[in-house]
Specification:
elongated, about 45% helix, mainly alpha, 3 strands
């Protein structure tokens, strides 16, 4: 009887190995951000929304872009000068 061949030990993925980006369609992206899908559709037209990609007729959002966009819209208080600036820019765009 022959011994079983040695198999290389499974190695954990390296921290340096980049993970592939995950893409979400409009409905999934809206759910991720807890927004209405229609809100994202409007923001693609008028601007101000998260970055998106077009693959043929499909609109896709990278999860990293959604999270980065959400981070840009985080404030500590309504008295925060950045909040006032952002809010004023949003109302002018309408």
């Amino acid at each position: 009887m022959r011994p079983a061949p040695l198999r290389p030990a499974a190695t954990a993925p390296s921290a340096k190995t980049p993970q592939p980006q995950r893409y979400l369609n409009n409905d999934e992206a809206a759910q991720h951000l807890r927004l209405s899908p229609r809100t994202l559709e409007k923001q693609r037209v008028i601007g101000g929304g998260p970055r998106f990609r077009k693959f043929g007729r499909r609109v896709m959002y990278a999860v990293a872009d959604l999270d980065a966009w959400a981070d840009l819209h985080s404030f500590e208080a309504t008295s925060d000068p950045e909040y006032a600036e952002q809010h004023a820019a949003d109302s002018r765009a309408r």
